[in-house]
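Here is one chain, start to finish.
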Amino acid sequence: MAYAKGVLAGVAAIFGVLLVPGLIRVWMSHEKATGFAAVSGGLVEAFLSPLFWVETFCVFAVFFVAGRLGSKALRVFLFWAPTITITTLGCAVVGLLTFVSLRIRK
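Its structure:
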């Protein structure tokens, strides 16, 4: 179970940093690019950014520590609820982008 919590914390950290700060940066940006290419280009740019990986490591550390708390209520509130929610939303976004890319090519 310890490995599963670590993997879940890592996936949630990546999706969390991509979704929350990434979307805020896109909305606050003054660029006028629209469309699917702009979204996929932004994701590639985020993965190559050192700031992305620093933020991901910090969020992973928080989730990693929260997953090992002694209190069950705190562990559920600070680890299980956020990681499951963020991972579900991240998988939904990846599925949506995959679906759109497959439908556009036809």
